[in-house]
Amino acid sequence: MHNIAEHGRSGGGGLTIIPEDRKPVPRRQFTKLLTLTGLAALATGAWVFLRARRSKHDPEIVVASAGEIPVGGFKIFTYPTDVQPCILLRTAPDTYVAYSRLCTHNSCPVFYKPEENVLFCPCHGGVFSASDGSVLQAPPPRPLPRITIEWRGSNLVATGVMKS
After folding, report:
1. Could you tell me the pTM of the whole model?
2. What is the chain written as a DSSP string?
3. pLDDT recorded at residue 13
């Protein structure tokens, strides 16, 4: 069985045959459906955001072993991802520090100068302290992000990034 609807509003004057199983949805019901769909999308987005935020922690990666780096030496590694270069320095027999290797000015790589105990950026002459990553000579606008390093047995393990 079919319903016949006239097209009085559009001015076409034609008839449309609507099958029984395809009755038009009333406005009120359509609005409820649209509202519920929007609320479901909002709730799903909030759940994904909160879950990602709660589980966001840096990985733990072995970056060196005891005695691998001589005093005054360094090792290049990547952390927390494979595209973020870092530098591990051994500034004294029992002192290791690690920083992001990207200058905070233009992301050029920094190089360790052990005789001056600094990290130097050759792009624009920026200089950072090897002791704490602070800016000693401009143009870098902020210190280098420090990589948290812990001893685990005979290994040095990167455990996090401390933003400046």
Report:
1. 0.66
2. -EEEEE-TTTS---EEEEEGGGPPPPHHHHHHHHHHHHHHHHHHHHHHHHHHHHT-----EEEEETTSS-TT-EEEEE-SSTTSEEEEEEEETTEEEEEESB-TTT-PBPEEETTTTEEEETTTTEEEETTT--EEESS--SPPPEEEEEEETTEEEEEEEE--
3. 59
72 compared with 24, residue with greater pLDDT = 72
Q: Which domain holds residue 20?
A: 2-54
Q: What is the pLDDT of residues 3-16, one digit of tens each?
A: 555 554 555 556 76
pLDDT score of 40: 86
CATH number of the domain at 96, please.
2.102.10.10
